[in-house]
Amino acid sequence: MTFEAEYMNLSKIIGPLVFIEGVRGVGYGDLVELRTGNGEIRIGQTLEVDEDKAVVQVFEGTTGLSLESTKSTFLGKSLEIPVSVDMLGRVFDGLGRPTDGAPQVVSDIVLDVNGLPINPYSREYPRDFIQTGISAIDGMNTLIRGQKLPIFSGSGMPHNIIAAQIARQARILTSEEDFTVIFAAMGVKFDVAQFFIESFEENGVLSTSAMFLSLANAPSIERLITPRTALTLAEYLAFECNMHVLVILTDMTNYCESLRELSSSRGEIPSRKGYPGYLYSDLASIYERAGRIKGKQGSITQIPILSMPSDDISHPVPDLTGYITEGQIVLERELFNKGIYPPIAGLPSLSRLMKDGIGEGRTRKDHAGVAAQLFACYAKVKRIRSLAAIVGEEEISDIDKTYLKFGNYFEEKFLSQGNYENRSIEDTLAIGWDALAILPEGELYRISRDDIQKYLFY
Amino acid sequence: MKKHIEGKVISINGPIIKAVGLEGISMLDIAEVGPHGIIGEVIRLDGNIAIIQVYEDNTGLKPGDKVISSNRPLSVLLGPGLISNIYDGIQRPLVEIEKISGSFIKKGIKVDPLDNKRKWQFKPSVKAGDAVSEGSFLGEIQETFSIKCRIMVPPGINGTVKSIVPDGEYTTDDIIYSIEYEKGTYNGRLAEYWPVRKPRPYKQKLKSGMPLITGQRIIDIFFPIAIGGTAAIPGGFGTGKTMTQHALAKWCNADIIVYIGCGERGNEMTDVLNDFPRLTDPRTNRPLMERTIMIANTSNMPVPAREVSIYTGVTIAEFYRDMGYNVAIMADSTSRWAEALRELSSRLGDMPAEEGFPSYLASRLAEFYERAGYVKTLSGQYGGITTIGAVSPPGGDFSEPVTQHTTRFVRCFWALDKILADARHYPSISWIDSYTEYIDEVQEWWGERNIEWSTIRRDAMNILLEDERLQQIVKLIGTDALPQEERFVLFCAELIKDGFLQQNSFDNVDMYCCPDKQIRLLEIIVAFYRNGKELILKGSEMNDFIYLDFVSSIARLKSEINNDDIEKLDIIKKEILTRMQELKGIDKFEFV
User: Fold this and answer.
1) I need a labelling partner for A176 at 20 to 30 A (CA). Which of A91, A129, B115, B189 fits?
2) In B, residues 488-517, which contact A (CB 8 Å cutoff)?
């Protein structure tokens, strides 16, 4: 059906794009093999086809390609990777080719890396509480199995340590099954990848995780495929092999920059900060590949990490991400500078799936009330602090002073913990109640009277 | 029936396809493209080239592939069986798609929008020989427990009934009636196609004079919307747009809800699908699903179908409006729809206006919101469409083009506030930035419930505005430096915020607040304020009474008093006034 022909008519090379003329029968999205003068083979994909012309993006970059000596073959299929359970414990490049020296993956099952959209009707609403052992997450921004919950970070902040701690400690209280971790690195430095490898090794999960590394020295365009290859394997493991998969994607900002690079090479009309107008849809095609499906055992939980340029949460990348993901864990520079680990910001962090994953029979009856009350009181602390900064702490009212005391206790005892400290949800809620006990009972209007009686003094 | 034209693809750029050989094709006709026959729509004609946008993934499509057109515009099928269904942007039922392709949506799936095997019990209301005019009812079907689907004469047809089937069971494919009219005979079925981009005709637009009761206190009392009105909910991410939309879809008193999930999260649709069959409509005691139609074109589904999903939803809403129902449309989110427009226009190489959006963004938004309204239908019924669109401004910045253009076409603006959302104060509708132009229209309705409505509302609003002003001062000098009356205003403002504005959508009592309870709750707070102010003026210390137990219980009334024992609120109000009278200690103090 597909006929393979070799073409030599490169007419133009712009950034990662090559323009090939005189081609026939090429499909939109088809995979292309480009052979350079010295026999090296590179992979590309068609972005635009005319009757006799094709625009191809080259994943491994166009460095060293020449118009004269490059030969191209259209393979008549889109980018696919073989998937198998044997891929666990292995390391791959961004396109899914092994880089650990071990042989190629052999499998009968070959999947398109772009996947297919999940039918919204077929989704199962995620409700299983994941205990990460981190109070700021479990207590106030609960992670749910099948959720996509990104970490918004800034340069220098400990997002990797937090992600590794989550991967290490994540447990479902009602089942014994462990998470299978899939790690995709896009444009990060070698030492970041090394950190995760070591962390998984120390934890004994390296043999059950798969890594897709497209590091900072790899061609930028390869990053556009990396999360997709990782998620293709994740979908296979979750929905065909009944595994619970935790996917860590770092750093999504690098991914978006590659997309911007590609878009500007194509001469597209940019929207904000030069990012293409379809950035939202493109990111959604990655993030929406998380969740649970009716009648299937497995799940995909995604933790994308992204760095906010100059800590700006309204930058297009965190902004559009926040519109797609089910909440966000935001790291705050101020807490970080105070030496608080994890520096998870109290207010802008959010988990949208929390409401249905907590409460009686899941965590504890008072969980929702405690979380809402802590949020409300901490918001008040922030207001009082800015007031106290102006009028001086002496001048504020007594109740406000009590709030400040609450705020300090909350930050030092509740938020703050060691990176190997694994708190149970009971511990987390107990510390939450200790903090609330500092305030007069009348201030606790978000908690039901029953719960106050039951938990406040016990 | 109609002739088919066949052409071929010459170029492909994302979902935009150029084809030749389609002579005679018209703008907005549907075309089936390539070997899978994926659905597209002609959006531009240029000489012999037709530009088609396709509504599905077209990977693998090649130049030279065939394009077939049947000369019919993109349409939705309107008939019994729409309710409780969940569709994608081009009206394919997702349940049927799942049966064919499993949990993932493969391309080129063709399914009928309505189940044409299902038999419906049809009861005719006219007989052969009757004169009928466009829009008039020919009979009805009990579609769900509380909704009757009326079979109407299609617009443009006026004549005499030549034949009509007797009472019995029929499918949507059966010919039910025939009408003799000036252009010949029209044979009608239970379900008929209507082009999505063409508004259905009506006789006259009117003012409804009725508020759409949402059960959400801040909306119903402070920023009400009239039936047939338009509202926008703008807010950055995490401010609770979807939560607010869900709350409205659950509790508003429309007969039918069309929920358009346009470029949003898959799990949010699942949430609705989980919740609605379980929850019951407070007015009919039937599952909410029995009045809901969902259009789900989530963010990872094809972008062009997202663009059309809005029109699919509005057309379905118009169909039920024409039967005399009140329909509410929730569109979440119009920004994603605008982004779909932007993406398509950029692939067409249009000259962009602001932030890359096409220059026709404003006119498209206007067209969409203009399809709302309370109308006298062709058959003389009264029906309405109330449209509520969520807007997702990048970075929460309301000065961006979609929010700005939207404000020109809606009359109600519920601005979501990041600071409120951060403090988990939901609904996080800002009482400072929001507005409504429907006060005059709904005043009479509320006045019949409580003659004091306007004054209570105005007083409460003044407390909140005064609070906002004082907070600026407090930021500089602290609360203690303010005089006692002003501190009392701050105290009462907090009481309104916690005890009235904030509403817990997970609390079984608080999630829906009936209008009579709403006004009583606010009345209690306002009465407390008026009397407290008097006490202070007469020399009492504010601290003498604000820490009393009955004061702190005011904030809990919203979740402790059920919608069906609101008389208790009258008793509580009396108690509070008596207690305050006692405080004063002396006789004849005139209480308000």
Assistant:
1) A91
2) 498, 506
Q: Of B62, B265, B480, which is closest to A27 when you measure between CB atoms?
A: B62
In angstroms, what CA-CA distances link B191 with A329, A449, B30, B310?
49, 55, 19, 21
CB contact under 8 A, A280 and B422: no
**Where is the domain boundary, A58, A78, A98?**
A78
pLDDT at A458 over 70: no
Q: Which among A371, A454, A378 has a CA at the least distance from the CA of A410?
A: A378
* Distance set, CA B161 to CA A427, B125, B130 (Å): 75, 11, 5
Residues A158-203 pLDDT 10s: 999 999 999 999 988 877 778 899 999 999 999 999 999 999 998 8
Exposure class string for B91-100: b at 16+ Cβ within 10 A, else e:
bbbbebbbee
Range A336-344 average pLDDT? 94
Interface of B with A in 344-373 (CB under 8 A): 346, 352, 355-356
Of A119, A123, A379, the CB nearest to B267: A123
Chain A to chain B Cβ contacts (< 8 Å) = 217
Domain ends where: A78, A106, A131? Answer: A78
How far is Cα A405 from Cα B480, in angstroms, rounded to an integer? 19
Residue A302 tokens, joined: 């995604």
Whether residue A125 is found in the same domain as residue A177? yes
H-type helices in A208-328, by residue range? 226-239, 252-265, 279-287, 316-324
Indicate the SS3 state at residue B181: strand
Tell whether A173 and A261 lie within a shared domain: yes
What b/e sequence results for B129-165 when a residue is b if at least 16 CB atoms lie within 10 Å of its CB, and e otherwise? eeebebbbbbbbbebbebbebbbbbeeebebebeebe
Are residues A284 and A295 part of one domain? yes
Inter-chain CB proximity A272 and B397 less than 8 Å? no
* Residue in B with minimal Cα distance to A368: B506
Domains and CATH numbers, chain B: 5-74 (2.40.30.20), 113-192 (2.40.50.100), 225-437 (3.40.50.300), 449-584 (1.10.1140.10)
Q: What is the DSSP letter of A100?
A: S
- Could you tell me the pTM of the whole model? 0.91
DSSP notation for A60-85: T--TT--TTT-EEEE-SS--EEE--G
Residue showing tokens 């800034």 = A154
**Cα A421 off chain centre by:** 23
Q: How confident is the model at residue A4 (pLDDT cuts 50, 70, 90)?
A: low
C-alpha span between B415 and B405 (Å, rounded): 15
Q: Considering only CB atoms, which chain B residues are within 8 Å of A368?
A: 506
B485 touches chain A (CB under 8 A): no
Is the CB of A119 less than 8 angstroms away from the CB of B273? no
- In single-letter form, the type of residue at position A20 comes to I
The domain tally of chain A equals: 3
SS (HEC) of B2-16: CCCEEEEEEEEECCE
**Does B476 lie at the interface with A, CB-CB under 8 angstroms?**
yes
CA B472 to the chain's CA centroid: 36
What's the whole-number mean pLDDT along residues B86-100? 94
pLDDT higher than 90, residue B551:
no
Is there a contact between B86 and A120 if contact means CB atoms under 8 Å apart?
yes
Contact B557, B524 (CB under 8 A): yes
For residues B9 and B132, give the distance between their C-alpha atoms in angstroms, rounded to a whole number.
46
Q: Mind telling me how many Å the CA of A178 is from chain B's nearest CA?
A: 24
Mean pLDDT of B435-461: 94
Task: Please indicate, yes or no, if residue A362 is contained in any of the structural domains.
Answer: no
- Interface check for B269 against chain A (CB to CB < 8 A): the answer is yes
Do A282 and A172 fall within a single domain? yes
What would the mean pLDDT of B374-383 be, rounded to a whole number?
Answer: 95
Residues spanned by the domain of A391: 367-455
Of the partner residues B94, B422, B476, the one whose CB lies closest to the CB of residue A347 = B422
